[in-house]
Amino acid sequence: MSRNVGTIDRLLRITLGLVLIGLAFTATVGVWGYVGLVPLLTGLAGRCPAYSLFGIRTCGAGDTSNLTGRS
């Protein structure tokens, strides 16, 4: 499985996920804030199933690494 989420995209996903989870944890936004797990997990994994479905890649064209670290 190769990565399809670039560095900036990953950082934004992780940040958004943590913010939403934090807001849900403090009961600021309610339980729907736990939907922040989705961007957090896809950001940490470097792979987005929706991107795969639509053929989108935000990582560089030269980045052919996969999630296991083997090329």
Question: Helix and strand layout, with pairings?
Answer:
Elements: H1 7-25, H2 37-45, H3 49-54
Helix pairs in contact: 1-2
Question: Which regions have little confidence, pLDDT < 50, spanning 5+ residues?
Answer: none
Query: What structural class is derived from the secondary structure elements?
Result: mainly alpha
Overall radius of gyration: 14 Å
- Written as H for each helix and E for each strand, in order along the chain, the element string is HHH
Characterization of this structure:
- The chain is mostly helical.
- It has a domain at 7-54.
- The chain contains 3 helices and no strands.
- Helix 1 (7-25) packs antiparallel against helix 2.
- The longest helix is centred in the first third of the chain and has 19 residues, at 7-25.
- The protein is elongated, with a radius of gyration of 14 Å.
- It starts with 6 loop residues before the first helix and ends in a 17-residue tail after the last helix.
- The mean pLDDT is 88.
Describe the structure concisely:
By secondary structure, this protein is an all-alpha fold. Helix content is 48%, strand content 0%. The model has no long low-confidence stretch (mean pLDDT 88).
Which key features would you list for this structure?
71 residues; mainly alpha; 3 helices
